[in-house]
Design a protein that fits this description.
Helix content is about 40%, strand content about 15%. It is an alpha/beta fold. α1 (about 20-30) packs across α4 and α3 (about 50-55) crosses α4 (about 65-80).
């Protein structure tokens, strides 16, 4: 069945935001004497939204600080959202070649922050819908945000595909009965993407792959 809808992950797929996330984490954790985090460490932890990220980086004996750390993180991150973030290569070029498809962003970042990032990189015009972790009440790997987008844009799961850099994107796609494409240039090693239906190393590969799938 031809593909009509492409759902994109944001962080690690369209935009590299890990440095700014790391900076905000370190700002939020510093008052509590917690060791500074490296970008490489943060990269392994991201993907399930801010609440889960804070749970992962806080020592067990300091989990009671979670809400305070989230508040400090969001205060800082909202003001420094794109200081060091960058669009991945060939994003606009690829999106320009996908005009015949409906397109959405499904991020585990909050909706308002996701939209601000997309606006900053002048990508808004390419998408029919942008949703975040707080849009539907559930996050990837739940199928709920994908099924919400599919319903809103009037297609079927069989006509939809998700493109992302993590196992959470793949699992969400499997649960929603959509096809899945993993990109290897994001935040996860190739071996963690083995369950994807297709794997690409360069976003430009998406255009011919979609043509092939849609035949």
């Amino acid at each position: 069945m031809p593909i009509k809808l492409i759902m994109f992950d944001l962080d690690g797929t369209l935009v590299d935001t890990v440095q700014d996330i790391t900076n905000a984490l370190n700002y939020a954790l510093k008052p509590y004497g917690i060791k500074r985090l490296s970008v490489s460490y943060t990269m392994k932890m991201v993907g399930e939204g801010i609440s889960r990220l804070i749970e992962k980086v806080l020592p067990a004996e300091k989990l009671y600080l979670k809400n305070d750390v989230i508040k400090k993180f969001l205060e800082y991150y909202s003001e420094h959202l794109t200081d060091n973030s960058r669009e991945y290569p060939y994003v606009k070029e690829t999106l320009e070649h996908l005009v015949k498809f409906k397109k959405a962003i499904i991020s585990n970042k909050r909706e308002d922050l996701s939209k601000k990032i997309i606006e900053y990189f002048t990508l808004t015009r390419y998408f029919d819908l942008i949703i975040g972790s707080d849009t539907t009440g559930e996050k990837k790997p739940s199928s709920v945000p994908l099924l919400y987008v599919i319903s809103q844009l009037g297609v079927s799961p069989e006509e939809s595909i998700i493109v992302g850099d993590s196992e959470y994107d793949i699992e969400a796609g499997k649960r929603a009965c959509t096809k899945t494409i993993a990109v290897t240039y994001g935040y996860r090693p190739r071996e963690s993407l083995a369950e994807a239906d297709y794997v690409i190393d360069d976003l430009r590969e998406l255009v011919p792959l979609l043509d092939k799938i849609s035949k």
